[in-house]
Amino acid sequence: MNPQAGVTMTTHSPKDVSNKSIQSRAAALFAENEQELHRRTDRLFAALMLVQWVASIAFAIWVSPLTWEGPVSRTHLHVWAAIVVGGAISVFPALLGLLRPGHTSTRFTIATAQMLMGALLIHLTGGRIETHFHVFGSLAFLAFYRDWRVLIPATVVVAADHLLRGIYWPESVYGVVVASQWRWLEHAAWVVFEDSILVVACRRSVVEMWQSAERTAALEETRDVQRRNAEQLHRLVDQLRITQQQAEAATRAKSDFLASMSHELRTPLNAIILYSELLQEEARDQGHESSIADLERIQSAGKHLMELINDILDLSKIEAGKMALSIETFDVRDMFNELFDTAGPLVRTKGNVLTLQCPDDIGPMTTDQMKTRQILLNLLGNAGKFTHDGTVTVAVRSVAVRGVDSIEFTVADTGVGMTLAQTERIFDAFTQADVTTTRKYGGTGLGLAIVSRFCQLMGGTIAVESEPGVGSCFTVVLPRVAEAAHDRAASDGVVAVA
Amino acid sequence: MLGLCWLAAVGAGLWVVREYDNAPGVAANAPVRWPAGTPLAPDAAGPTLVMLAHPMCPCTRASLDELAEALARSKASARTYVLFIRPSGFAEGWERSELWQKAARIPGVTPIRDDLGVEAARFGTSTSGQTLLYAADGTLLFSGGITGSRGHAGDNDGRSSLVALLTRAGRGQSHTNVFGCPLFARGA
After folding, report:
1. Is the ipTM of this complex over 0.95?
2. Which of A69, A201, A391, B8 is buried most, with the most CB atoms less than 10 Å from its CB?
């Protein structure tokens, strides 16, 4: 019985298909639950039948064990009735309940038998009015089936019992010798009254069962969708993992290739630079002044190419995970003294003023000095390159980053500056502030990319603040002791603020 | 088909039981006047009620219930005897059964042992539960059972007639069927 029967689907959208699937599953679940309910109740009644049978025998033996004829006694007919008739009433439906639970005929037989047992019990108790409650109790018990149809045979049995007794033994049921031929209807009406209540209860229970089945079906559908999504997600994750592995392998291959190629390129390039320098000396010695300018161009182009190859080699080493730190302890102040000897002339070339603000007690660092110097040289080189007749200021101070003792280096200039968009990609490889920068100022576009990766490698950070026409300020923070910040190296990124 | 056979068998069984329960016992041939020679003393000022009972008859339990009900409803102070027969071969005290105790608890009722059923025979009765009502002048007013069937308590013509006669509210039936165990062995 499907309370939703009669509902017609007219569209076939995915949602409708899903609803149809849920309805179909709900119908199956409902039928399954209903069948299980009927089977369970059948077994329950089978046990009840046998208990009632035994109880009726015990009652008959207790109340009327013997019948007497003067001094002679024999077993009372009620005892035999309880054994034989009670057995006939109980055993057949009990067997059906145990052997064929769930069949419609089984519960109809049980309903009939239950009311017949009521009739027998009423008889065995001498028609006590209290025993009539067995009829009403049985009807309520039959409602356990949640199938109002079982009340029909039960009611028919009660009505027929009253009708027949009213005709043949009216005193046994109505207490009068002559009763109206319709009086059985009065008694049956009370049974029907209870039936009407039980029918409503049964129907409501069935609706609740259906709703429960719908909820379960919807839940199953949701779980199914979740399972499918999870499977799809797993497949995607697997694909992603494979793709990532392939990408990593490709990156390693590329880096290996670049490292190899860079090495192969540097050898002949060194020869070109060296020989162009030797040729310049020979040209000067032999007075071939016209060739010197060309040879200088060859040497300059060779050096630029060497610089580019070195940068590519560094970057590829970093990306290939082959760039190792060479940790050593050095004095920061001393490092700057040497650094300024190298970078000072370069910065001052364009009329810039270079100043250093570094406390005398800044103390030592334990990290990769070569890379620290390379970072600062790059920043100073850029500041000198993009500033004309301005100032380049280097400030150094001790700071604590998340409880880690660190050194903050700030390289500020009053140069051309950058926009926010430019600062956001300034640390990407092969990127400069704009396409005209390379033409105007030269450079490979790899310097800041290498700087930012060195910072990460040493567990530090790099950030930039800039404003077009005002200048730029790069801030590098490196742990005073590189190993202490090793765990943060992978997670810390580059911060750019315009 | 099997179900129909089952229904028929059960129906037949119930029918047999009902037939048994509704089969009346042998009616009394009670003397129309208070019998002479009985040691029972009739009430000269009012009706006297006599019930003959087998002390072990389970059907008589309902008769005693109905007797208590009739006396309570009539509110009459009829002198009432319930004679419990003691056949030969049974020791003294055998008659003091649960039914005896039940009769003794009914207000106004005197249970009396009837050795060998002498008084039962004197009153012409042979079925347990037989009830006789004699008027103050010794005239038999009612003879019959006061249950609707064997061991079946509840409203019935016998009790209604008895109440009507006791209360003088009208004329009830003077004879009704009696349902109970035979007081004497068959052929005795």
Report:
1. no
2. A69
